[in-house]
# Entry
Amino acid sequence: MMFTTPMKHIIAVVLDHDSDNVAKELISQGLLHFMSIRELHSPWRDKVQDVVPDTSGARIAEIKKRIESLLSITGTSVSKKDLDIEKLKPLDIDRTEKLLDDISGSIQGYRDRQKQFQQEILKLRDIKRQVNLFGDIGEGIKIHSAYSFLSIQTGSVPSSKAGDLSLAMKELPSVIIKLQEIDQHTHLLVISMKKDDSRVNRIFEQSGWLDMEITGDMQGVKEDVIGDLDVKCAVLEKEQDDLDKQAKSLIQDRTGELLDLWEICRLNELYSRVKSYFSKTARTILFSGFIPASKQKVLEESVKKITAQRCYLEWSNPVDRVKENIPSSEIPVELKNPKILSPFRMLVQNYAIPEYGSIDPTPFVAVAYFCMFGLMFGDVGQGIILVLCGIIGSLIYKSKDKGLFELSQLIIWCGISAIIFGILFGSYFGVALFKPVWFNYHGIITEHARGTGFVKDVYGILALTIYFGILVIGVGLIINCINLVAKRRWFSLFMDKGGLVGTWMYGAGVYTGWYFATHGYKELPNGYFLLFALGLPTFFFFFKAPIKFIKRKIHDPSISFTPLVPVDFFIEWFVELMEIVGGYLANTLSFMRVAGLGIAHVSLMFAFMKMAESAGTIAAIPILIFGNGLVIFLEGLSAGIQSLRLNYYEFFSKYFTGTGKAYSPVSLHSD
# Structure
């Protein structure tokens, strides 16, 4: 379809007791882009009141997010594919929130304990790190550095209380090493943190601790300390894992219940959203919205069936009623293209939504972007790598992230473009394995070969990209003229710089430049041609400002004609001429960046080939692999960005009016 999808506007009136069934049917159909009756400039808006849904949509949405957060603990994702409007039933919000609070409270308990264990692990690891600074533990005992956060003590306790001391010290990050047992007393080495000294001293007092110096050999004790620390960390990490499993088990046991709750919340959220667009009188419900014209019959039949013909439906073409009751900016826009073009539709929508009733730019963007990328990045081998990367990305993100999935699809398109143009240029990982179908890009840049036909040297490549730019800009101007005809903007069609007169001047300027270049930069076309091709449209442009002034004067008689008005006419005429001459020239020459990126791509590959040749056979392979990888990443990224830039700033600026609103019907699968 060349233009954006034609829309129909509906104003519907149904009986109050049919409104619930109608709301469910509208959700099930998923076709209506709602617009509140009270937004219309019509008699309806002053005779109705808004319908307030029974439950808050924001509150339901918050509950839904909480359920999704809980399910994410086990990696369970929700799906909109299997939603059934017949399962819609009232949601007990208070009971649901209490249930989620209970589950969240249990999960938070597990998380708090995990956090405590993690803090203990970090402390034990700090102790281990500090102990590793000592050559042996005996050295650490002697130093007693004020800069150490460890407290290393040796002493003895009655053997009968050694177990109690070990048990009490488990509450603190510490290490206890048994050194020897003499006369019913156990000699111990205790390592703890200085900030815990007060608690440690109390434990010592309760256990009958006696400080003493150990004069024996301390060799091997350091290994025992580190081993004990590793064991304690391992035990705590296992405790953390067990808590994580318990949290997941709690969610797994209630997954079915949570999924059912999510479905009820989702259905109620959609139901609440639809009802929020309803308006009412004493006994009737009214709603309004837009639907693709091809779906009008489907929606009309379903509403009549649900209400047993007890309804009134008023259909209209939104374009015909813009001046009466529908702001043009409120008419939704649907870009309906083949699924294969979805990556390029993404590029269009990321820029803006085109105005309703204008040409859908997606197919033109697809062709322009495809050719631009190939001219900048033509290589069969590197294109195959891009295709493989795009396929892998598509498989990874197909059901996870729509944006990244479409980006992966775009990379596949870029790879195909690189392959096709690589065949035309005879480039296979920077090597001319086969004869080029068109011209030898690498040979021309490296001066190892001379082209034939139109592209014989670097200047031919630059000229090629300029001609390509002229074609793209020309197509943009033609699209703009078609858009203006479709919108019946006759004044803009004739007098704008992007209209017929502006297109006339651009075409004449292109011919004049071509003539001048092909005649040795010494001769211009004859004066009669210049007078007709450039002088006449320049003269026409002078009347643009006066005509606009007269139109304003007709609508607002208070506007007065002063001596400065003709000066304004002249300045506006002069500035617009400068914009046409300077703007179109800059836009056209901007396409030389296509040649610049292509030359840079070839030059980089040539540089890596020379490095590989000079490095020898063994080192050549890693150099070529690294070089191709770097070129694919840097040049591929640059070519993609520059192709996008040329589309946005040189192509879109000729015809694109991004004032549209995306068609967004309320459906079971909508966001």
Remarks:
- Residues 11 and 288 are 5 Å apart (CA to CA).
- The chain has four domains: 1-50+278-334, 52-130+235-273, 137-218, 343-654.
- The mean pLDDT is 87.
